[in-house]
Amino acid sequence: MTNELDIFVGNTTLIDEDVYRLWLDGYSVSDAVGLRVRSGILEQTGATAGVLQSDTMDHYRTFHMLERLLHTPPKLLHQLVFQIPPSRQALLIERYYAFDEAFVREVLGKKLSKGTKKDLDDISTKTGVTLKSCRRQFDNFKRVFKVVEEMRGSLAGNIQQHFLLSDRLARDYAAVVFFANNRFETGKKKLQYLTFGDLAFCAELMIQNWTPGAVGEQPPDPPPYSQVDDMDVDLDKEFLQDLKELKVLVADKDLLDLHKSLVCTALRGKLSVFPEMEANFKNLSRGLVNIASKLTHTKDVRDLFVDLVEKFIEPCRSDRWPLNDVRLFLNQYSASVHSLDGFRHQALWDRYMVTLRSCLLRMYHD
Fold it and tell me: How many C-alpha atoms does 316 have within 13 Å on its Cβ side?
């Protein structure tokens, strides 16, 4: 009796997306095989358990060999060992650098150091993300941070260029880098309701408006990187210093009263919480302006989100402000300053409040 065996030989590296996902999620070969069996793949393909074991091991070996290239994505594009179509290369890179929001929320704002890495066991237990996956994601954050922290120009653009990520993922990584660099406090209990999306939204606004790169402060002949602020990673120190000038809005009684009068006149009959707003206007205004005036101190920068919750969001929640009333108030509060005679810092005020207003509206969950 003659046995026939069909053999196909090719040089294209086959990537099974489901197995790749299991590998990225940190499952061992045996666990991955078990999950594949439970998915019904043996019945679907008619394969044996032994063939499935060998197939899974083969994919895992390929992924391990590819991993060193994924650490520097441009190398994956230019290597000749693995013949992988461009669309598959993009998928490998994007999924390798994707992260679990539950994980990133735990490390956001923390220093990307060995000390934080020691906490990954606890974070894995808390989030349900496997320890191996936590380590991969943490190492990715650290790797991206190290590559772009000294670069000038667009933070998201630099990340996209050097790691070949999609625009959305590059901007998410920019938020992670920005938070890690400025060490914003995000872990306190009163901030736990904020999602990564909420905080990344605020980071993007601060990068756009509060960094030296936001206003094009690029010297014609820039000194070495170590002697200048990184365009999109650091907050603009001169801007933060200038924010002290805004304190006149609450320190000058006449300006404070006039500002209140303008806002109340514009919003009378439009807010369901008008009496509460009128009664609490000065405290809310002092809170918003004092946050600005203290941002020259490192601790106050770190506590920015804590202060926004304590000085504005919690008082409004306590008085049961609906989100639309918060929006109307902040819009009018910001715009009315332009009608204050004698106030000389309109551009500075707008640069501050455009970001703060949008962040507060994103952070306010009524």
Answer: 29
